[in-house]
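Sequence, please.
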């Protein structure tokens, strides 16, 4: 049985009407992806399936410095104890070959005096390597083999001490320790500066010792596809900053705002406020310089994903002059304030400059209206206070009315009551 045709034409039905309605652009929610650089500066990268592991052993010193502290301390202790045991065995063999361990031998010159067991040989090995002499055990000139072992242990002990102590020193003086006092603002902002749309961050140094020759580099990392169809998962694009254009280094005496002008050469040129929130880009900030006190080059890193970029905000000032001294309030280091900023992209702003003018005019009008409302509220409050004070005066004046006083006056031998007000 055939289905009965509807009385209402198809073009006037709900599907037909919905198809003819203008559709707004739909932006997909941003898929949560891993960060390339964490907020603390560590690289979020895992190396897998490395077949040539022997390359790490060719650079032993760097491998030891890169290890964690617990592994470094274990290797440090194991190396010294192993060398002491190895040369203790050598001293025991020298004494055994010379007959010093024979209990029946009372006369004759020993290679090493008071070495009668492996324990005493181990103690003598420690004394030789760490140059501690207790006076009871000593080497004699009658045994050339013992002199040779003494020279070998001294050379080996010096090499082990130099490598291990150097490793410990480099781990304690690593450049990333100095980077802990180089701070970045938790959020980046995009606002209008000098009539141009700008991407801005704030950096600072908590120590009084300066970073010499400090430079800042910004990179945008995003997944791109070439016209040939090649997928580049980590495409790094360098972007210029105002400081890089003006000079080669920063004078990081006080917290600075690093500004990137979003122009035609910027990867942020075509992104509006809504498109930025849906994008998967990541802005990496790298601060490099030489530590003034140690002369070691240090590097601090951080990154900002789209959720950490605030559109239409500006950093609040934190440097003030107090009694002839410039003071920095680090409690407001990452604080921002909303400012009038067009929500369109920098490309649209360049094509239609009137958008910026209209936005600034609306902001000025809203600011004036808020000032009027604030002044009217203050006026009303002052009037209410004045009305309340006048009512209080009336009540106080009513309380000042003189009460009636009654007294007696004698007249004609009788008493009459007179009232005086």
């Amino acid at each position: 049985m055939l289905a009965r045709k509807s009385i209402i034409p198809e073009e006037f039905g709900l599907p037909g009407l919905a198809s003819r309605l203008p559709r707004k652009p739909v932006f997909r929610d941003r898929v949560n992806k891993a960060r390339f650089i964490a907020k603390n500066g560590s690289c979020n990268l895992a190396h897998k399936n490395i077949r040539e592991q022997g390359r790490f052993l060719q650079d032993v010193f760097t491998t030891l410095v890169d290890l964690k502290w617990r592994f470094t301390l274990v290797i440090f202790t194991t190396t010294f104890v192993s060398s002491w045991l190895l040369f203790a065995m050598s001293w025991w063999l020298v004494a055994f070959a010379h007959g010093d361990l024979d209990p029946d031998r009372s006369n004759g010159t020993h290679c090493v005096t008071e070495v009668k067991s492996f324990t005493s040989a181990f103690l003598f090995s420690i004394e030789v390597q760490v140059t501690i002499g207790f006076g009871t055990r000593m080497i004699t000139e009658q045994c050339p083999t013992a002199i040779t072992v003494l020279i070998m242990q001294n050379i080996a002990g010096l090499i082990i001490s130099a490598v291990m102590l150097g490793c410990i020193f480099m781990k304690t003086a690593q450049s990333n320790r100095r980077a802990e006092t180089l701070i970045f603002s938790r959020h980046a902002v995009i606002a209008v500066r000098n009539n141009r749309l700008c991407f801005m961050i704030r950096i600072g140094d908590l120590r009084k010792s300066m970073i010499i020759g400090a430079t800042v580099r910004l990179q945008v990392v995003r997944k791109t596809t070439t016209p040939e169809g090649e997928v580049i998962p980590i495409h790094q694009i360098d972007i210029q900053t105002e400081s890089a254009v003006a000079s080669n280094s920063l004078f990081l005496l006080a917290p600075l705002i690093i500004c990137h002008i979003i122009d035609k050469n910027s990867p942020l040129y075509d992104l509006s406020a809504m498109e930025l929130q849906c994008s998967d880009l990541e802005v990496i900030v790298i601060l490099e310089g030489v530590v003034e006190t140690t002369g070691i080059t240090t590097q601090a890193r951080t990154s900002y994903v789209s959720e950490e970029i605030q559109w239409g905000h500006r950093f609040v000032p934190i440097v003030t002059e107090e009694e002839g001294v410039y003071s920095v309030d680090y409690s407001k280091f990452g604080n921002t304030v909303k400012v009038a900023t067009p929500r369109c992209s920098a490309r649209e702003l360049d094509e239609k400059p009137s958008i910026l003018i209209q936005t600034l005019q609306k902001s000025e009008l809203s600011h004036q209206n808020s000032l009027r409302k604030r002044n009217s509220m203050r006026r009303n409050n002052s009037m209410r206070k004045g009305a309340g004070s006048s009512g209080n005066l009336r009540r106080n004046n009513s309380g000042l009315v003189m009460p009636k006083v009654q007294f007696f006056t004698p007249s004609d031998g009788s008493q009459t009551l007179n009232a005086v007000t």
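DSSP finds eleven helices and 15 strands in the chain.
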